[in-house]
Design goal:
This protein has eleven helices and 15 strands. With 371 residues, the protein is α/β, with parallel strands linked by helices. β5, α4 and β6 form a beta-alpha-beta unit. The chain is globular and about 65 Å long. It starts with 10 loop residues before the first strand and ends in a 6-residue tail after the last strand.
């Protein structure tokens, strides 16, 4: 039965048998609000992994309990959640946060408390350099932006691109990296416009872009605004292509027929993995009756990494951090559904990027992938 999450402060627990020893793994993400669909994948991935760990005997015989905290992808709410976890001495590792702005707000709180955290989704480049206690199992925006510029030029053969970006840490970092590589790739950025999360009317800026006649519009931002933006662009008669980063990788885009042909980067494609990925997809589909998105896959692996650390280091925060920091080479990598995860000196990982596209109202792997 589906349990309802309340806005910030309330937690959702995975039920375990009464009387069993419990190890809590907190997971912070947006479970309500505009980006709740992202959080749904995070929640599902975490609960599925915990269920599998418990079915296999738990962590050293102790049951795992997932504690979900809703922070709405809002920096203030994220800081409140982080403070609560930092003050809870039973918390030895955190999974989260999702949005880069939320992670950057939580980061100094975890740093002061020496509380390790793994973000499955925050891609802003500053995160890893800012704390030895923060790790991530997703690529960075400087890589993703560079990748998108090369893909737009080399695979899509675009010559002229406009950028329409959201004002937040994620989107602006992605925009800057794309802009830098565009110049090296011979890709001309003909114009750039900004919008905020609360924006619903994009027509004035889109009218400017229409006069510039770009081959494509790059949207560094999140899906709720992007779907509105694309619809308004089509209504104004823009015929160009649209593409974006992994923040546009959401089911909401499939509900918009005007988004047909949209392509985005993603750190996870089910058809690019082997048997371990196929089995994960089947289990996820059976349990939740939907396909796993990349937030689900990355969180599934992040919980697995956390469990492996807790199995060796127990509830000692410093030893948990040390365990994760020691996963620093391909030979020591954690073998997950998103590939082999290992960390550099900043807690960042080297992961591939893939491209997916909307065809006939469904996300499918793009025929052209950049090696």
């Amino acid at each position: 039965m589906k349990k309802k999450l309340m806005v910030l402060g309330l937690v959702f627990f995975l039920a375990v048998p009464g009387g069993a020893e419990i190890i809590k793994i907190p997971v912070a993400s947006p479970f309500t609000g505009p980006l709740a669909s992202f959080g749904e994948g995070v929640k599902n991935g975490a609960l599925l992994k915990a269920e599998e760990i418990n079915a296999g005997g738990g962590i050293n015989g102790q049951k795992v309990e997932i504690e979900l905290a809703d922070e709405l992808c809002d920096p203030k709410e994220a800081a409140a959640v982080a403070t609560r976890f930092a003050n809870d001495q039973k918390s030895a590792i955190i999974i989260g946060h999702l949005c880069s702005s939320a992670t950057l707000a939580a980061l100094p709180i975890y740093l002061e408390a020496k509380l390790p955290a793994i973000t499955p989704a925050s891609t802003n480049p500053v995160i890893g350099k800012s704390s030895p206690y923060y790790f991530r199992n997703v690529y960075r925006d400087d890589f993703q932006g560079d990748f998108l510029a090369r893909y737009a030029s080399q695979v899509m053969n675009f010559k002229r691109v406009a950028i329409f970006y959201e004002v937040n840490d994620y989107a602006m970092g992605l925009k800057d990296a794309f802009f830098a590589q565009a110049r090296n790739s011979g890709l001309k950025v003909v114009g750039a416009e900004a919008y905020r999360a609360e924006t619903t009317d994009f027509k004035a800026q889109l009218a400017k872009f229409k006069l510039l006649r770009p081959d494509a519009i790059f949207i560094p931002g999140y899906a709720p605004q992007a779907t509105l933006l694309i619809s308004q662009a089509r209504n104004l008669g823009l015929k160009c292509a649209f593409f974006g980063g992994d923040g546009l990788d959401d089911e909401i885009m499939l509900k918009n027929p005007e988004a047909e042909g949209l392509f985005v980067t993603t750190p996870f494609l089910a058809d690019r993995g082997g048997s371990i990925v196929k089995e994960f997809v089947e289990r996820y589909r059976h349990k939740f009756s939907v396909e796993p998105n990349w937030f689900a896959a990355n969180t599934y692996d992040a919980v697995g990494l956390a469990a492996a650390a807790l199995a060796v280091a127990g509830n000692d925060r410093e030893q948990v951090r040390g365990y994760l920091a020691a996963i620093n080479s391909p030979e020591k990598a954690y073998p997950g559904v998103t590939g082999a995860t290992y960390f550099d000196e900043n807690g960042d990982c080297l992961k591939a990027a893939f491209v997916k596209i909307i065809r006939n109202g469904q996300w499918v792997s793009a025929e052209g992938q950049l090696q």
